[in-house]
Amino acid sequence: MTPDAARRPEAADAGQAARPSACIGVRDLTMAFGGFVVQRDLTFDVAREEILVIMGGSGCGKSTLLRHMIGLLPPAEGDILYDGVSFWAEGDPATRRRISQRFGVLFQSGALFSSMTLAENVALPLQQYSVLKPAEISEIVRFKLALVGLAGFEEYLPAEISGGMRKRAGLARAIAMDPDLLFLDEPSAGLDPPTARRLDELILELRDSMRATVVVVTHELDSIFTIADDSVFLDAESRTMIAQGAPRDLVHNAESAKVRNFLRRGETRPGADATDAPS
Length: 279
Hints:
Pfam family, one: ABC_tran
Protein name: Polyamine ABC transporter ATP-binding protein
Shape: globular
Oligomer: single chain
GO molecular function: ATP binding; ATP hydrolysis activity
Strand order of the largest sheet: 6-7-8-3-9-10
Strand content: 15-25%
Keywords: ATP-binding, Nucleotide-binding, Transport
InterPro entries: AAA+_ATPase (IPR003593), ABC_transporter-like_ATP-bd (IPR003439), ABC_transporter-like_CS (IPR017871), P-loop_NTPase (IPR027417)
Helix content: 25-40%
């Protein structure tokens, strides 16, 4: 989108189109590097204006799936549909570029250029993909930084601010073009609990204010239970998706004990009390 004012309940049949209410449809997706299959036969929908969390243990392919969804890696098999339009199987480069312009992406590191100020970092997509004048770009940059709580930090370098602030600056750049599809890779990784909670609240606020569909990769339980409307669980052992649903349902009702145990880690962590357990 150009800047203006700055569950599936059951498994989908192979090859079926995304549901009318679905914004994103992953269909029979297999991810592989050479002969090594990371995940196979992934099929799920992401409902419009909902937050879907991709979760699972280390090395299961969560971030790899996100990279397939944003066009950085092609699948070995299968497809991804955006509003019913094929991204990989039938999509030509022009179609992929057009769809990708709807994306806002926050990588795990924040991916800020260290030699550029926060304002310069946030301005990059506007300078590259819009025809706005410099004064208009500056106005949008100030607005986006203020939106993530960084008003007054426009001229700071990334090294001069905290890790949590760098994540928020990266988020400001991700939303610079007013995307309706937001992809976040481990947004709260490495943050202390209060900072992570503030970032989760910000993600919810941005989803609501921008009416965006959001895909988040995370293994952080607090974030999973706070932000997720829906979730998918990738299993490293079987190399496929073994559950989809709201985390507060899966923690009690998932068929796989592996999923239930993953979501119940917070109940037994040192220092946890009964109020910490998911309800």
